[in-house]
Amino acid sequence: MRQRSVIPGFGLSLGYTAFYAGLVVFIPLAALFIEASNLGWGELWQTISAPQAVASYRLSFGASLVAASLNLIFGLLVAWVLVRYPFPGKKFIDALVDLPFALPTAVAGIALTALYTPNGWVGHLLNFKVAYTPLGVVVALTFIGLPFVVRTVQPVLAELEAEIEEAAASLGANRWQTFRRVLFPALLPAMLTGFALAFARAVGEYGSVVFISGNMPFRTEITPLLIITKLEQYNYAGAAALGVAMLLVSFALLLIINSLQHWSAKKTGGK
Amino acid sequence: MSIEVRHLSKHFGAFQALDNISLGFPSGELVALLGPSGCGKTTLLRIIAGLEYADSGQVLFHGEDSTGKHVRDRNVGFVFQHYALFRHMTVFDNVAFGLSVRPRSLRPSKADIARRVHELLELVQLDWLADRYPDQLSGGQRQRIALARALAVEPRVLLLDEPFGALDAKVRKDLRQWLRRLHDELHITSIFVTHDQEEAMEVADRIVVIHQGRIEQIGTPDEIQQQSASPFVCEFIGQTNRFEGNIKDGWADFGDFRLETPPRLQESAKLAGYVRPHEITLHNQASDNSIPVTVASLKRLGPIIRLGLVSTSGQDIHVELASQQLPKDTEVGARLFATPIQAQLFAV
Amino acid sequence: MAGTITTLGNSHAPRISNVTQESRPVRWLLISLAIAFLFLFLALPLAAVFSEAFSRGWQVYWQALQEPDAWAAIRLTLIAAGIAVPLNVIFGVAAAWAITKFSFRGKQFLITLIDLPFAVSPVIAGLTYVLLYGSHGPLWSWLSEHDIKIIFATPGIVMATIFVTFPFIARELIPLMEEQGTSHEEAALTLGASGWQTFRRITLPAIKWGLLYGIILCNARAMGEFGAVSVVSGHIRGQTNTLPLHIEIAYNEYHFAAAFACASLLALLALATLFVKSLLEWKERHERFLASQAARKEP
User: Fold this and answer.
1) Which of B178, B202, B235 is the last residue of a domain?
2) Same-domain check for residues B335 and B208
3) Is the four-CA dihedral B230, B232, B234, B240 of positive or negative sign?
4) Does B50 contact A3 at a Cβ distance shorter than 8 Å?
5) ipTM of this predicted complex?
6) CATH code for position B244
7) C or N terminus of chain C, fewer CB within 10 Å?
8) What domains lie within chain C, and their CATH numbers?
9) pTM for this model (two decimals)
10) How far is A14 from chain B (nearest CA, A)?
11) Boundaries of each ABC transporter domain copy (chain B) (predicted)?
C-alpha cells in the first residue's frame, strides 16, 4: 500500500482530501452520468446526434481550433519577444498577458462585444461583421485562451542555454536554420501543451461567448449554451446527455495534455 | 552511547536496500559507512535515526530496543546531505529550533537558549553569522551551521549523511580535518555516510564497507586497506592491479610470478590476486619472480612517479614508486621487469 | 553591459551574443507584431470596459453602483468567495501535504481528480449540481422535507464556486512542496518538534508565498465566475445574483453604462490581482537570485 513514513498526518490529510474531492467533484460528476444513463442508449444517441447539437459541436470545436491555432502562433511570438528582446514596458506587458485568467469572463464578453459591434471601436473599421457571427466566437475564445501558449513556452525558452544556439551558429547554421532545426523542436512539446490547454479551455467556455455570439440556433450556438437551453426547458436528461458527451471530450483532452506535459518534461530533462 | 543493529532488512518495491544487516557501533567512535551509491548505506543511517522503518530487524541504543521509537524521541543529531537548514529562519533561530520546540516544562529559558546557541556557534567558529539567513551563507558555512543545529539538542549520537558531498574539493578537505578534531573534542558516537574512500580513510576510526545491501567488511582504515575481506573491497578501496592464477604446490602461481599462500586457500583453487600500485618494484634484470613489461606512460608527480605498464600478455599494470627507486634511464617504450612484493589473494 | 541591479529581475534571461541575435529590423518587426496582438486582444477590451462605464458620466456611474440590486450582488459575490476560498485553502494544503509527503497507491488518480474542474466546462459543473440537488434530483425529497434550499439559493452558488476554484490552491502548492522535498520536515522531527510544530513552524512559512499566490488567483476566479453560477442561481434579483450575473442582466436590458460600471469593479479586481501576482513572482525570482549568489561564494 504505502511505505511507512515518519512524517505525520498521512491519514488526516489524505482522508480529508479524498472526502472533500469526493463531495465536490466525484459525486456530482457521477450524478451526471447516472442522469444521462436514464435515457437509454437509443435516446442518448439521438440527443447527442440531433442536428442542432451537431451544429453546436461544429461551432464549439471549430472555433476553439481556430482560436487555439491563433494562440499557438501569436503565443510563440509573444513568448519569444518577452524572453529574448529588451524593450520599454516589457514587465508591464508580461504581467498583462495573464489578464484573461484574472478578468471575469462576463466582463470580457461584454467588453469584446462593445468593441466588435458594427459601431464599436474595432467594428466600425471593418467592412464585415464580427459580433453575432462565428467570427465573434473565435475572437472571444482567442481572448480567453491567450495566456496558455505564452505561459507554457516562456519558461522553456528562458531555460534554453545560449550555448546550443552558439553551437549551431559555429557549425554554420544561419539564424532561420537554427530556429527551425534547433529551437523549434525543443519548444514543440511546450507549444503543443499550451495549444491543448487553450483548446480545452475554449471548448468549455461560456461567459465570454454568450454576449458576442448572438446565440442563434444552428449558427452561433455553442454546446454549453445548448445545455443551458435544455435545462431551462426542464429537459434534464437531454442536458445531461450533452454534458456527458462534452465531459468525455474533456477527459480525452486531459489525457492528451497530461501525456504532452510528460513528454515535454522528459524532453527538457525535468522531472 | 553504543548503537547496535540486528538483522535489519529493507526493500523499496523490488529493490533490496538492506539484506539482513547486523552490526555494532562502539561508544565514542567515529564510524564511516562506505560504499558505492545505491548500496544501502544512507538507508541504514536513516533507519538508525528513525527517519525510515526497517521491514524487519532491531535497532538498539545502549542495549535498549528502540526499533519502534519515533525519531522525535530517539535524541539523535542528524546532519542532512543538503543541510536542510530552515530558509526562513536566521542562523540563530535554526540552531535554537530544537530547544524552542520542547514542551514548556522542559524548555530552557530564553537566556539559556541564547547562551547555548552562542556556545555552539563559537564551537563551529561562526558566531558572527548568527543574524544571517541560510541563503546568505556559503556551502561550507551551511554545513557547519547544520552541525551546530544538530548538536544543540545534546544528541546521544550524531548521524551525518554525506556531510561533505555537496562541497567543492578544497572546502571538503578542510572540513574533514575539522570534523575529526571536533569529534576528538566531543567524543560523541558518530556515524557518517560517504562514497569517498579517501574521506572515510582520513576521518573514521572504523569503516563499514557496504555493497548491495550487505556488509562486506568492518575494520580500521588500515585493516580495510591491507586485509581486504573481499575482491569488491579491494577494488573499491583505491587503485589496484588484478592478476588471475591458481594454487600449485602450495604457492599462488600467476605464471610469471608466484607468491606465498595463506593456509585458508585450497590446493588448485582459482585465484584472484590484488596488488596495489606501490606494492610492485621495477628492475632492469629478469628474475624468476618477475613480469616482463613495456613502459606505456610515465608521469612525475613531485617525489612520486606513476607508470603505466603493459605486460607481454597485454595486461595493463599500474605502478607508483618514489623517484629514486626507478631504474636509471627509464622512459616510455623501455622494457623492464616488474616484481609484485605482496598481494591480497582470494579464491574465485 | 548590463549593471548588476538591472539583471536582478531577469536572472533567468539567457546571455545574448551577436551570433544568436536577430537583425534589428527583424527584432522590431517581431516586437511590433507581438505588441499589436496584445494591444488588440488585451489592452483594447480593458480600455473599453472603463470607457463604456464612464460614457454617460460619473453621475450615472455612481448611481449604477448604488443600486440596491448591485449592492446585493456585491454582497453575494463576497459571501461566495468568502466561503469558497477558505474551504479550498484547507483542502489545497491537505491535498498537497498528502500528495507530496507520502507515496501511496492511487496518487495519480487523485491528482487527475484535482485537475478535473479545470478541464470541465463551468456549465457542466453547474449542471451536475442541478441534477444532484435540484427538484429533479435524488436528494430533492429529503432536502425539501428539511426545508433546505440549495439550487436557486446561496448554498448552490457557493458550491458551484467551490467546484470551479477547487484546483487552484492545490495546483499551486503541489509542485512547490514537491520541489522542497521532505528533508526540512525530517530535520525538524529529529530536533524533537511535534507534527503540528513541524507544519506550523517549518512547512507553512516555506509555502506561504505560494499559498498567497494560489489564494489570489482562486479569489479572482471565485468572484468572477459566471457559467457555473449562472446555471444554479435562477437569477432572482436582489437574492441570487452575483456581480457577474448582475452585469449580464443589466446588459441584456440595455443598461449598458450600468453593466459596464459594475464590470469596471471586477476589472479593477483583475488588475489588482495581476499586480499582486507580479509582485509575488518578482519576490520569488529575487530570492532565487540571492540564493544563487550566496551559493557561488565559498568561505
Assistant:
1) B235
2) no
3) positive
4) no
5) 0.89
6) 2.40.50.140
7) N
8) 60-284 (1.10.3720.10)
9) 0.86
10) 20
11) 3-237
